[in-house]
Amino acid sequence: MSTEKEIGCYILSSQKINKYYIGACQENLNQRIQKHNTSFYGKKSYTSITNDWTLYLFIPTKTYTQAIAIEQKIKAMKSRTYIQNLKKYPEMVEKLMLKTSST
Q1: Which of 11, 27, 26, 6 is nearest to 75 (CA)?
Q2: Sign (positive/negative) of CA torsion 62, 65, 66, 72?
Q3: Is the pLDDT of residue 3 over 80?
């Protein structure tokens, strides 16, 4: 398993609960997902409600600050359709990257 650090915003999906989770990371992405699936962040964390989180989409960024800005914009949309469209239409991700490039 690679231990390479990856900076970006990630979206996880769970088939069991049919939900998405949006986060930002500056560490190895596979290790981060494994932590979510093993309740590493505590029993009260959102991701502890299931253990089948898989990577839905990863948006690599140059800085952690930009990753957090993208995470916040996606969360602010409060839209399942928006999340699905990010994967379906790469130009939406490009637009999001441009909006947050100054952060």
Answers
A1: 11
A2: positive
A3: no
Q: What is the 3-state secondary structure (H, E, C) of the chain?
A: CCCCCEEEEEEEEECCCCEEEEEEEEECHHHHHHHHHCCCCCCCCHHHHCCCCEEEEEEECCCHHHHHHHHHHHHHHCCHHHHHHHHHCHHHHHHHHHHHCCC
From CA 58, how far away is CA 38, in angstroms rounded?
A: 20
Indicate the pTM of the whole model.
Answer: 0.92
Express each pLDDT in 63-103 by its tens digit: 999 999 999 999 999 999 999 999 999 999 999 999 998 75
Could you tell me which residues are beta bridge partners of residue 15? Answer: none
